[in-house]
Amino acid sequence: MRLLVLLVLLLVFPLSLRGQQAQVSVIQARGTINPVTASFLKKNLEGAAKRGDRLLLVELDTPGGLDTAMRDAVQAIFASPVPVAVYVTPSGARAASAGAVIALAADILAMAPGTNIGAAHPVTLGGENKDKVMEAKVVNDSEAYLEGIARKRGRNVDIAKRMVRDSISLTSEAALLEHVADLLAANRQELLSRLEGRKVVRDGVETVLHLSDAKVVVHEMGIRDKILDAISSPDIAYLLMLLGIMGIFFELANPGVILPGVIGGISLLLSFFALQTLPVNYAGMALILLAIVLFIAEIKVVSHGMLAVGGMVAMVLGSLMLFPSSEPYLRLSWSTIAVTVLSTTVFFVVVIAKVVQAHREKPITGVEAMPGQRGVADTDIMPEGKVLLGGEYWNATSGEPIARGEKVEVVAVKGLSLTVKRV
Fold it and tell me: N or C: which end of the chain has fewer CB within 10 A?
């Protein structure tokens, strides 16, 4: 009996091993490094550890990103039991700023020809008006951080420090010569073939990569992550915030319309998520809110356009101050600011014009609309009598005698009596 059980196990166990083919996971990190990118990387590292993947390959092309997201990504790479390779690809791609730090933290750093890495000088808020002491502290901290990463991975420490201190950037060939990158590869297939048999040392433990029989699986971002990644753009966050503010305002101004309130609420909540992932200047946000208030006040108060002009100026200044970063990918584009400010101004100017036009139009209902209307004298008016006007009988007075049946025109209304004259 024992012999039979042993025979069954010997037959089944190899079959189960065949069903669990070795795997290399591939993810792509394009665009800015933000909390969504860091979360996506961490989730795939955890999945690779559970599956027992032989390698996680990160194909990178980024201009940089947020310091907090970068540090989360580096910590996840260091904590991963699965070897991590960062591949700067395709040709023309870059691993700049925060991307350079993540690339240097990988077990293996590969680059495609025509790519570059570096320019890791930290960017602080406030544009040119930075506090020198604070700037020096930030630079020193970033330099020590990248030095520690380079030393841990056995890379060129001096070059890593200069990436922070002097913002130097290296081509793929120069990075290989300076012992920053480990190898060059034209494509993914060439990279994996060159990694076959390569030794990776992690925490004193040596691992040999066997990738020739491994299945390559590309993991894409889900719909949720793609949406969150898209709205983390400063331009999208800015538009969502304005759409949310206006939607909520129109719902409060016209209760029961529902649609503006629903769209505004969703947009505002999405903008809150995006704003927490971006460097926000709250003075800029306050100026944008002031601009909306001034535009609305222009509808209610006759200021001959001064409030609208003030709102336009406040919106331009607030938009420029909202994301105070010297990096283009962390601030609003001029085209977005111009289109948004002009469209908002035109919208409120059109609304203001319609309100003024409505105020100037002659009333068509009520007592105010009666002067100028015509009727027929129902009795002789000398000086009092009755007239038939709009199917109703009214008491009337006149400064001249009017015979019954003559046409009359209302001059004024006083209480329930009309002052009329002969047509």
Answer: N
